[in-house]
């Protein structure tokens, strides 16, 4: 698989923006360090930049020509930083303000996909200001008895829980309200979980994840060595193509662009795919999924990073 890339000198001075002050700071630091090292090894004039420690106007003082955003979560993946960089007239990688904001919000993502008749699981919304624990029994019945609880605007599975009773649901919602005032309550799909990376409009090979955890949570993603990744994922060629088309459609539907990742569940009985969420600045650590998918397509980590940086040239 090939991507549009440029010579190292054409990028000018590049700031890899990482860290920040979101709940995903630790992962962002690791992603940013890996990306920065790859750029330096490729001969790009690159520096690290942590907006939690420096004012954005320092980008101008440092004569930065473009920014490679490696901020995960709020403040970096939700459109806020994208808008600030646009005001500073500094090009940046990945999705713009609208695509970033929509993809960050799991509820709005599902609503858009639903309107476009793209498959997504049944759901309800819990709003902190008017939530009543007494409604949990009816919600459990409506969503099939197994529910995933997700803060609407958090990433890396932070604040998420899988519940099987009304009592558990009420507790999980209250816990999720610590992260967001809106919480997505999603029917749990029994079956394997897949993820598809999209880079420069092209879908990379899908990855299937398997974990002994209750679900693919923060620990399974970044801390444990028990999670297994399969790429090739084991899908037939037909299903691989079907999944790739679904994920690129879902990504485009949110006005996302440049690069990112779409997560999907497959019903083990029907084989139908259900969209979970999109990520516009996925992890780029040694355990991250986009580099694994790129490797399966014979794209090195360095080539992947340069392809991501090239999205700032558009």
Automatic annotation (TrEMBL):
ATP-grasp domain mapped to chain residues: 110-310
Q: In which pathway does it act?
A: Cell wall biogenesis; peptidoglycan biosynthesis
**Location of this chain's protein in the cell:** Cytoplasm
Q: Which InterPro entries match?
A: ATP-grasp, ATP_grasp_subdomain_1, D-Ala_lig_Van_CS, D_ala_D_ala, Dala_Dala_lig_C, Dala_Dala_lig_N, PreATP-grasp_dom_sf
Pfam families noted in UniProt? Dala_Dala_lig_C, Dala_Dala_lig_N
Q: Where is the signal peptide?
A: none
PROSITE patterns, alphabetized: ATP_GRASP (PS50975), DALA_DALA_LIGASE_1 (PS00843), DALA_DALA_LIGASE_2 (PS00844)
Q: In which domain of life is the source organism classified?
A: Bacteria
Give EC number(s), comma-separated: 6.3.2.4
Required co-factor(s) are: Mg(2+); Mn(2+)
Q: Which Gene3D superfamilies match?
A: 3.40.50.20, ATP-grasp fold, A domain, ATP-grasp fold, B domain
This entry's Gene Ontology molecular function terms read: ligase activity
What is the main EC category here?
ligase
**What UniProt keywords are attached to this protein's entry?**
ATP-binding, Cell shape, Cell wall biogenesis/degradation, Cytoplasm, Ligase, Nucleotide-binding, Peptidoglycan synthesis
UniProt catalytic activity: 2 D-alanine + ATP = D-alanyl-D-alanine + ADP + phosphate + H(+)
Job of this protein: Cell wall formation.
UniProt record similarity statement: Belongs to the D-alanine--D-alanine ligase family.
Q: Tell me the protein's name.
A: D-alanine--D-alanine ligase
